[in-house]
Structures are given as structure tokens and as C-alpha cells.
Amino acid sequence: MESKLGFLFDIGIILLAANIGGIISKKLKQPVVLGQILVGLILGMGILEKTETVSQLAEIGVVFLMFIAGLETDVNELKASGRSSSLIALGGVLIPFILVFAGMYIVTSNFLASLFMGVIATATSVSISVQTLREIDQMRSRQGIGILGAAIIDDVVGIILLTLIIGVVRPGENNNVFLVIGKIGIFFIMTFIIGYLLIRVMSKISTKINIDDKIVSFAIVFCFILAFLSEELGVAAITGAYFSGVVFSMTSCRHKLSHEVHRISSIIFTPIFFVAIGLGVDLRAAISALGIGIILVVLGSLGKIIGCGFGAKISGFGNKEALQIGFGMVPRAEVAIIIANLGLAINVINEKQLASVIMMVLITTLITPSLLKWSFGRA
């Protein structure tokens, strides 16, 4: 049980380990995020537990990370990438779903479990890719914009697919796909209206009063509220955080906000998030499902690289750029584990299949930073 002030010791150890891991990783010419995840794995081997406090601070870290990504997004480029992002997302959902479903069905002969594992394989967690792209200064590249746009669409399609599968498994429950689509629609309409009004108000008052001193606090409040509302309406909190950043990227304060929020985030919250990913991985469970786990990792990763790469290729990207986008869409993290736990709770998948998902999360999280750095670094 976590004592009243025991969490302070935990946070101190996590931040110390994150800094050491980051320094070693940088010395080895690897992304800092890789070192932070690895020290999380080491700490998780009986040294520290992933407590509720750590989980909540980690959640703030990923919200900040996506908020900064939104602030650094060029809205005109985001609009222009709408078609390509849709094609990338479509390939990144269909191909992993088909490959993993087929592979799992051949191995298990369980139709519903294979369907569910296929849905899990569609989930992308771009927080790792976002941090790596920031480190190698590619966040605002055409590929970076394509990855972010595709990840948002990917997230929405994944929620709808999950709702459909649960509706098949438990038709009596309140899992109406039209209700889910309606909620997602409400979120995007609400974000557009609030964003439009906010930009208009800020452009008017900025000429009359100095808002520079309070803008960072106000922006963080707005980010947290929109992240909460997006989660409540069935869209991931990180999507709300990203769009709140996009809203502020259209104001004159974008550079100040990006600098200040990055300072706050990088000192405490973002390192905790990446160490917490490692802390949350059950290595023994992952190793216990080695056979089925390898199938899931290989088919799930190839599905993203081929599917997203093909979508990028037909929307005008070159071979190298398509590969970079495919690599950027490979990682799975908390979303895949949440869906897998849900599948276990409703008896669609078993403990071994859950463990294989943990293995997929672990491996895709560890390989993505190095793959991205290599793909952008090569001639």
C-alpha cells in the first residue's frame, strides 16, 4: 500500500532513473525515450510498482506531449494532408486487422477471439513516435503530419470497430455503433466551435490587454478540459489534448506556449510517462506467451508498415517516406492493453492472449524509436 508521502520517493527514483537512462541512450546515439522505457522495465523488476499516483502523473505527461504536438502542427499542412492521412489510416487499420485475424484463427480456431485480437492490432499509440520525431526535429515534416493525422483517424475507426465487435459478443448491452459515431461527431463539432470562438476572442482582447503572463495557465486549463471531454465522449484524451494544441497553434502565442509547456512537461511529466510504460509491462507474462506473442508482433508490425506504407505511397509519398510513416505507426501501448483487458473481462480472449498483447506492446515500443531514427538518418 502506498504511504502518505511514499509517492515522493517513487517519483524521485523515477525521475533520477529517467535522466540516467536518457543520458546513456543519447551517448549510444539512440532516442532518449528508448532509455527511459528501458529503465522503467528495470525498475519494474521488483524495485518499484506502477502506483495510481505514478499512473496519473504519466497520464498528464502524455496529455502534455500531444498538446505540444498540436502546438507544433501547421494547420494548413494538416488540412492538406487530410486525404493522405485517411488513406494511411485506412491501410493501417485494414491490413493489421486482416493479417492478425487470419494468423490467430489459424492458430486458435476461435473466430471471436481472433476478431478481437485483430481489433487490438489496429490500435496505434503515437506518443512514442511523437517524442522521437521531436528529438530528431521531424515533428513538422510532411511525414510527421501524416503520422499524426492518420493516428487520429485510426483512433476513431478503432473505437467504432471495437464497439461493433462487443455488439456481436454481447448484443444485449448498450453498444450502439450509431451512438458511438454520434458522440465522436459531437466531439469534433464541439472542438471546432470552441476553437473558432477562442481564436476570435483572443485576437480581439490581445490588442487591448497583455495576456502573455496568464496564457500558459489558461492554455493548460483548456487542454485538460478538452482532454477530459474527449474521453467522456468516447474519443481518447490524447486526441482532445492534440486538438487543443492545434487551436492554440493558430494564435500569436503558439511559440511561447510550445516553449513553456515543453519546459514544464520535459522536467517532470513526460519522463514519468515513458518510465511508467516500462513499469506497466509484466515481463513474465509476456515471456509466457512467446509463441503466440511472436505471431502477433510480426503480423501486427508488418500490417502497420505495409498498410500505412501503401496508403502513404498511393497518396504521393516516396518509398523512403512511406517506410518512415509505416515505422511511425507501429507502436502500441496503453490503448492495446486496455482493449485486451476488456476482452478478458467479457471472456472473449484468455490470459495467454492477453500476455501476447503485452509482449506486442513491449517489443513495438522498444523498436520504434530506433527504427524511426534509422529511417530518417539514412541517405
Keywords for this structure?
single chain, 379 residues, Na+/H+ antiporter like fold, mainly alpha
Structure description:
This protein is mainly α and 379 residues long. The chain has a single domain, classed as Up-down Bundle (Na+/H+ antiporter like fold). It contains 17 helices and no strands. α14 (290-314) packs across α17 (351-377). The longest helix has 29 residues, at 177-205. The chain is globular, with a radius of gyration of 20 Å. The model has no long low-confidence stretch (mean pLDDT 83).
Characterize the main sheet: none
Task: Tell how many strands the DSSP assignment holds.
Answer: 0
Evaluate the radius of gyration: 20 Å
CATH topology: Na+/H+ antiporter like fold
Low-confidence stretches: none
CATH architectural type: Up-down Bundle
The mean pLDDT is: 83
Query: Which structural class best describes the helix and strand composition?
Result: mainly alpha
Please report the number of helical segments.
17
What helical percentage do the residues reach?
over 70%
- Please give the CATH class: Mainly Alpha
Portion in beta strands: under 5%
Morphology call: globular
Tell me the distance between the termini.
Answer: 52 Å
How many separate domains make up the residues?
Answer: 1
What is the string of SSEs from the N terminus onward?
HHHHHHHHHHHHHHHHH
